[in-house]
Design brief:
By secondary structure, the chain is α/β, with parallel strands linked by helices. The chain is 39% helix and 17% strand. The chain is globular and about 65 Å long. The model has no long low-confidence stretch (mean pLDDT 95).
């Protein structure tokens, strides 16, 4: 039986339909660097979701998508406002500062979500050459804590940013999970709500590897300049794939059918099943609402290591002297049997934390 953990949706394999698309693209010679029919088709697929004037650029990974999204629309004297748990703030090794050259201004968002009131204290110093200039508000959908922004919440942040001559960036590493959970088309909670720049994630939803940067007009300032410069920015940042067709073919397979939906729906449903089960277990509570494919639970410290020896997952942070918050992520290939088996193990460890478990 294949081993599937709840550590990360990055740990899941590649969906067979994606592998088939890669195999299909692996025929003969085509022009490199994106001047090929596979990339043309993938861009057209993105535009069916986001609008014919959306500009789409494929990159290798999520950090690149985020950092280049920010670098494309900022200068070194600009600041990006984000939450304290934002991936760009805690999980990208300082790449936004080092490569994009921007200062990050973080807000303590208990549920992972920025609000108008949280952002407002950073909106000052405009025009003052002694003060960093706020330029971008960056949100993550779904958030790093598994929560979701509603369309209205996104629109309120976009309106605030635009009123101050700023932009709204969305880190959409799990945007497919968000779309399924919200019951909305991609465009309805991105471009239609005022998002200017989007990092569109594919790797966490069944791709072998690939992310996209999507720019929506009108971006404040010279729209055409942002688009023209991004091609050079991507190349200089070592994110222009010579064999682009293999990234493009994956996105076309994911988004030209309902594969993106089915993959994300499965992950979300598995997480909902897991969340429902653990809430009935003594000593375990949910740290945050389970709204997409991540379950964050407060569990006794004494059970974490015994359970990890059988089923690896990450401890998120300390909750108090007796308990920690852990993260359990579900993936496109997580089955209900996986969830039920894990819950059986969890119950056993809760009752007998010192008992040696049989190997998986």
């Amino acid at each position: 039986m294949p081993y599937r953990s709840f550590a990360s949706d990055n740990n899941a394999g590649v969906h067979p339909d994606i592998l088939q698309a890669i195999t299909h693209a692996n025929e003969g010679h085509v022009v490199g660097y994106g001047d090929d029919r596979y990339t043309e088709s993938a861009v057209a697929t993105f535009r069916r979701h986001f609008g014919e004037d959306a500009k789409v650029f494929f990159v290798f990974n999520g950090t690149a998508a985020n950092v280049l999204s920010l670098k494309a629309v900022t200068r070194p004297y600009h600041a990006v406002i984000c939450s304290t748990v934002a991936h760009i703030h805690v999980d990208e090794c300082g790449a936004p500062e080092h490569i994009a050259g921007v200062k990050l201004l973080s807000c303590d968002a208990p549920d992972g979500k920025l609000t108008v009131d949280l952002v407002k204290p950073h909106l000052h110093g405009f025009g003052d050459p002694h003060h960093i200039q706020p330029k971008v508000v960056s949100i993550t959908q779904s958030t790093e804590l598994g929560t979701l922004y509603s369309a209205d919440e996104i629109r309120a942040l976009a309106d605030l940013a635009h009123a101050h001559g700023m932009l709204l960036h969305m880190d959409g590493a799990r945007i497919c999970n968000a779309a399924v959970a919200l019951g909305l088309e991609f465009r309805a909670f991105t471009r239609a709500c005022g998002v200017d720049v989007l990092s569109f994630g594919g790797t966490k939803n069944g791709l072998l590897g690939g992310e996209a940067v999507v720019l929506f007009p009108p971006i404040a300032g010279d729209w055409r300049q942002h688009v023209d410069e991004f091609a050079f920015l991507r190349k200089q940042s070592m994110q222009l794939a010579s064999k682009m067709r293999f990234i493009s073919a994956q996105f076309d397979a994911l988004l030209s059918t309902d594969l993106w939906f089915r993959n994300a729906q499965n992950a979300n449903h598995a997480a909902a099943r897991l969340a429902q089960a653990v809430q009935t277990m003594p000593g375990i509570t949910l740290a945050y609402p389970t709204q997409a494919n991540g379950v964050f639970a407060v569990v006794p410290k004494r059970i974490i290591r015994p359970l990890q020896q059988h089923q690896f997952f990450y401890t998120w942070r300390e909750h108090d002297a007796q308990s920690d918050i852990v993260r359990w992520m579900c993936s496109w290939d997580t089955t209900f049997d996986d969830v039920d088996t894990f819950c059986t193990l969890l119950r056993e460890v809760l009752q007998h934390p010192s008992r040696e478990l049989s190997p998986p």
